[in-house]
Amino acid sequence: MAEAIASEPIPLESDSDGVMRVRGTRVTLDTVWFAFSDGATAEEIVQEYPSLSRADAYQVIGYCLRHSSQVETYLERRCQEAQSAKRSNEAKWQPEGIRARLLGRRQQRART
Question: Which of 16, 44, 54, 100 could form a disulfide with 40 if both were Cys (CB 3.0 to 4.6 A apart)?
């Protein structure tokens, strides 16, 4: 009689902001996929992010390879959200002259 091989669920979960993370870690799907796409092996990714297990890294990479169109759609949405957040932050806090403002505050604190 052949033994049954159990399958395990993909170790991904969505947080309250809709960001996909490797279950039990703060490591995002984006992080794993971009590192792999840049040529890193699963072992190198785990070495860089020790909260990941090698098995989870391989499962996430495999998921991304099997569901590339869904992952691309997700990554495009994340990119758009990041650009929107950047525009919003820059509208609130002008990046021009920030170094001068910070140095000025440091000098003010040093005088008090």
Answer: 44
